[in-house]
Protein 1
Amino acid sequence: MVNSFIEEGILCADIGGSHITAAVVNGTSQTVISDTIVRQKIDAHATAEVILATWTATLVAAQEIWGNKCDCLAVSMPGPFDYERGISLIKDMDKYDALFGMDIKREFADRMALPMDRIWFMNDAEAFLRGEMCQDSNKYFKRVLGLTLGTGLGSAFFQQDEVRDLNLGSSPYLSGMAEDYISSRGILAYYRALGGKDTTDVKTLVKGAGEDGRAAEAMQQLAIWLADFLLEHIPELNPDIIIVGGNISKAQALFLPQVSHILEDYGIRIPAKVAAMGEQAAMLGAASFIKFKKMNS
């Protein structure tokens, strides 16, 4: 029998390089309780205490809206991260350097007054794809490549009812690794190299792309990088479809059609679409992982 705490409410968080979104998920129906969604921007270059305090305050706010104390916590977290032990291994990736080596599970346990064994972490790309595969429109696909485009590049693969993290963002690409280019920092660095305005986020760049030719060119360069990246990995993975999420996916009209055109020039006709659930997918994916773990323990 499924434990009662799963049937009631699971406190979940989707942590990215510039944000945290928290909510309570109904463990029985596997749905996000929409009234409990709380979003907060994060300064990923802040001190450890500032980051952890902001994460905690966001979780507490979501729980207070629900009106009950949740007995477990599921967190979608970017890597590198020791997901079993809850220790951050993120370093020299333009985010969360202050947390390197810290026991984040212990921090959440102390700050949220939860037992250590009621806190779970999952790779953000894996959690995202798990959540997306819960949608009826995706249930007919047998092999699915999921990509998250944001402060970093996340990748996961669905096959035979299992989702696994691919960690392709760390794969060698050009003079560095893939997410040095296919990410917010890659787009902004290219834009600045073109002589673009001093801007700190892709959202601002995208808003000006209609009038700023350099901004539009930067997004087109993203399409070239992403297509080149996919050409390297598609032959081995052979997906039926590519699902793209993350904050940059909101600007899909500026790059995704060109990605498809480039792939077609190489004889590859694999549909690509933007994720339907947005940030809720990662929270649902993390919650479903808890249910799976508890039912099989």
Protein 2
Amino acid sequence: MKRIILSLAIIVFALGSFAQNIQGGIITVEGKSSVKLAPEDISFTVNFSVKSENYKECAEMSVEKMEEIKKLFIQNGIDEELIKTNSFSIREVQKYDPQLRQSVFEGYEANIPVTIRTKKDYEKNDKIFELIKDNLQSNFNLNFALSEEQMETVKEKLIQLAVEDAKQKATVIAKSAEVKLGKIKSIQYGEPRMIGPYNTNMELMRAESMPAMSAAKADITSVLSPDEIEMRTNIVIAWEI
């Protein structure tokens, strides 16, 4: 008799737990969003290097070269605040000696990229390109990127679209399952992320190719058409049912 009563108690407890799960059920849905933008920022980066057998002399030569490049742009009307130097490195250079059959010290090399970051509609972009190709015998690259203003604006839009997507999915699921959506129980948000290459339409040019380009027309920014950059995000929302 005790065994029968105990079995009945277990069944009643199990039914009670099942009823609680139904009453406290949730629908969890992931909303996704995607927005494509045409990049507004342009970066011209000159990559130069200097070498010397003496470490101090190498450092001094690199600073002089950097000032020389900045002066070139400033004297030609390029806004000084647009010119940036974000890194500087000096490394020891070794060369293999076939007679000694080992690497021997050759000197030091300093590498410094000087970047001019402008807007696509900056009226002096072609002038910057012209100054680089006519005066600087060094590697350089040009790339496009989203501006800070674009990133902030698209962030809000992505969230709105992701929430709408989650709501639409949850509504369809609830209708199909013949349940009613209740209050939102939780929200998890993912930061926007960039899809595809970070630098679109990169144009890399070597120093040896520059003399042949000196007579070319410098309308580079009107020729290049950067691809749109896609931004995505996701948001997970749980509703009570």
Protein 3
Amino acid sequence: MGTRRLSGLQKDVLRLYRDCLRAIKTKPEETQHRFRAFARQEFEKNIVSVKRTDVRAIEYMLRVGRRRMEQYMSPNVRDISFI
């Protein structure tokens, strides 16, 4: 049996997650774990709140996610706090 092929949208979501993890490596080492936990929490939160077939919602979340990643990965942002 072969592996299941991913749709283009699924690949985009995984690419965003990988990009987030790579960008986190540019943050101070002592705060990287908080950024990683935040990214993971955001992706997990959206896994349960958006249906796999809701393409519009997923595309919207991807746009929001990219914008947020750009904001948080600014050199001026050195730490993150979340509840």
